[in-house]
Design brief:
alpha+beta; six-stranded mixed beta sheet; globular; 7 helices; 13 strands; three-stranded antiparallel beta sheet
Length: 199
């Protein structure tokens, strides 16, 4: 994927997993790659790869990855150097690439966690225990697919529609119910609400 901010050639899931396992950071695979692991096959092309961490673990992650990766704050369509201090609350993600430059390799999302609960930053009324947000999928920690679909529900793109069609039939009735109620709170105008019926 090529954009105004540079080219993307994402790491493989295996490379990301090996890199993150070498740190003491709690992490999980998110985005479309995590949904593919849930579905059990590649459902579409992916222009990047996403990893999520607890926002409070940013300093730990930056220190652990510094020898291998250059980290840049991605915000408002621009990139900024990652200073020693914590980024502003408006900053939600980092882009990372090899220390010698080149294409971008992985996006790191900063997730708010309050105690043991993950908090949806778009609407803090939506919360779940972190143990329900992250689950093991073939030995890789992955985002709960219902949580990932909630992220995609704000303004669904064609790729998000593909994800919904592939993932929704595989969700349990409880996960469908959670997704429907979370969308009703956070994105009440989302056209998906009427399509997310109990299994």
């Amino acid at each position: 994927m090529v954009g105004d901010l540079g080219t993307w050639e994402p790491f493989s899931v295996e490379t990301v997993a090996a890199m993150m396992r070498a740190t003491d950071v709690f992490w999980w695979l998110s985005g479309g790659q995590a949904l593919d692991r849930f579905v059990g096959r590649v459902t579409r092309e992916h222009g990047d790869i996403d990893v999520s961490i607890r926002r409070d673990d940013l300093a730990l992650a930056a220190a652990a990855l510094a020898a291998r990766l250059e980290l840049q704050i991605a915000s408002g369509g621009r990139l900024y150097d990652l200073d020693a201090g914590p980024p502003a609350e408006s900053v939600h993600g980092l882009w990372a690439r090899d220390r010698d430059g080149g294409p971008w390799r992985v996006q790191i999302n900063l997730e708010p966690v309050d105690g043991g609960d993950w908090v949806f930053r778009r609407d803090p009324r939506v919360r779940r225990p972190l143990r329900e947000v992250v689950h093991d999928q073939d030995h890789i920690p992955c985002v709960n697919p219902a949580v990932q679909l909630l992220w995609k529900a704000k303004d669904p793109l064609p790729k998000d529609e593909i994800d919904l069609v592939n993932v929704l039939p595989l969700l349990s009735a409880d996960e469908r119910a959670w997704l429907r109620s979370a969308i009703a709170l956070a994105h009440p105008r989302c056209p998906w609400r009427s399509r997310i019926e109990p299994a």
